[in-house]
């Protein structure tokens, strides 16, 4: 008997959320629930999309969605988020309780945020 394909838990907070312009990239994946990070992250307004950074000193709890994504989906999201071009990096993120026991990843903005406005805790901007 074959073991099931490994899946990755992904927290999305912007244009990948349901109803937004890039949500179709998750259409064949499993939506689990809405979720919030622990305080410690800042979301910046990059124009048409948000950029999340780790900010333990000044960060807040960010609202988003938790998804279970298969290997093909992860490869697609890595491409969409520009991981190989260093636009975003996929790393571990901590969610509030009830937290899942498995590791959860998110896409963090890898660019310079010094001139970007802070957006808040929930991306609702239409793109």
Automatic annotation (TrEMBL):
One of its GO terms (cellular component) is cytosol. Pfam families: GGACT (PF06094). The active site is at 81 (proton acceptor). One of its GO terms (molecular function) is transferase activity. Residues 10-114 form the Gamma-glutamylcyclotransferase AIG2-like domain. Transmembrane segments: none annotated. Keywords: Transferase. InterPro entries: AIG2-like_dom (IPR009288), GGACT (IPR039126), GGCT-like (IPR013024), GGCT-like_sf (IPR036568). PANTHER family: GAMMA-GLUTAMYLAMINECYCLOTRANSFERASE, TROPONIN C-AKIN-1 PROTEIN. Belongs to the gamma-glutamylcyclotransferase family. This is Gamma-glutamylcyclotransferase family protein. It comes from Gimesia alba. The lineage of its organism: Bacteria, Pseudomonadati, Planctomycetota, Planctomycetia, Planctomycetales. The gene is ytfP.
